[in-house]
Amino acid sequence: MVGFAIQAFATLIGAAAAFGLEALRRRHERQHAQIEQFKAALFVLILHRTFLRTLHAQQLMPQRDNPIRAYCLHPILVAPPYQRVDLPALSFLLSSKEAELLNKLGVAEAQYSCVVALVEQRNQLHLAFQARLQAASAATGISEGTLDDIRGIAGKVLGRQLEDLTDELYRTTEHAIGFNRDVYVAAVSSFRRLFPKSSMFGVEDLPLPKSDAA
Q1: N or C: which end of the chain has fewer CB within 10 A?
Q2: Binning pLDDT at 50, 70 and 90, where does residue 91 land?
Q3: Contacts of 81 (CB under 8 A, 6+ apart)
Q4: Which pLDDT belongs to residue 211?
């Protein structure tokens, strides 16, 4: 009877140990997945910021002070990164002290998407303007003119849309660059607090062909 009790107790201890090891393994796997998901979000932020900075430095800044920049800034043909921050994969942040970061990541993602949408919409408008400009140049033989001349060629509706979208593209891009950087810094700090034993990559802004003060 005593031997049976000892054997039963040993079996119970063994089962408890196995259960504990399995729980520990699952916890490690869950944390590993969270680390990878977090790092993926950081990488997407870097991709977005690189595109935004390149757009700002190489396309927008050269025409920034041009009074007819809405018409001189040609369609932007550089394809933006298709990767997006997987917010549902980061839902574990909601049960931590870093929950506010999830909202910031969502805002940064929305701002990036807004810039991309503005670029695409403006490209279509500028292509329409180019067609009118080509037709006007062919009819008159004149290739230069004042702002009023250019507005006359574009037409009241197209001209106003093109100018408004161009101004909005400048504002939105500059704001998105700064916000993206702030969120990236906050995300790195959150990562280090949540996973202090995990290695962390730090990426500084790469230099661009043209200066970027952001």
Answers
A1: N
A2: very high
A3: 44, 47, 48, 50, 51
A4: 45
Alpha-carbon distance of 203 to 200, in angstroms, equals: 10
Q: Which pLDDT score is estimated for 30?
A: 76
More confident residue, 28 or 32: 32
* Whether the predicted pLDDT of 175 surpasses 70: yes
pLDDT at 78 over 90: no
Rounded CA gap, 14 and 17, in Å? 5
Q: Residue 160 and residue 180: Cα distance in Å, rounded?
A: 30
Distance of alpha carbon 73 from the chain centroid? 23
**For the chain, what is the largest distance between any 2 Cα atoms, rounded to a whole number of angstroms?**
112
Closest CA to 70 of 55, 60, 80: 60
Q: How many angstroms separate the CA atoms of 122 and 125, rounded?
A: 5
Q: What is the torsional sign of CA 213, 66, 112, 207?
A: negative
Cα 15 to Cα 9: distance, rounded to the nearest angstrom: 10
Place of tokens 């520990």: 24
- Location of structure tokens 């400048």: 170
Q: Is the pLDDT of residue 77 over 80?
A: yes
For residue 61, what are the contacts with CB-CB under 8 A and spacing of at least 6? 210, 211, 212
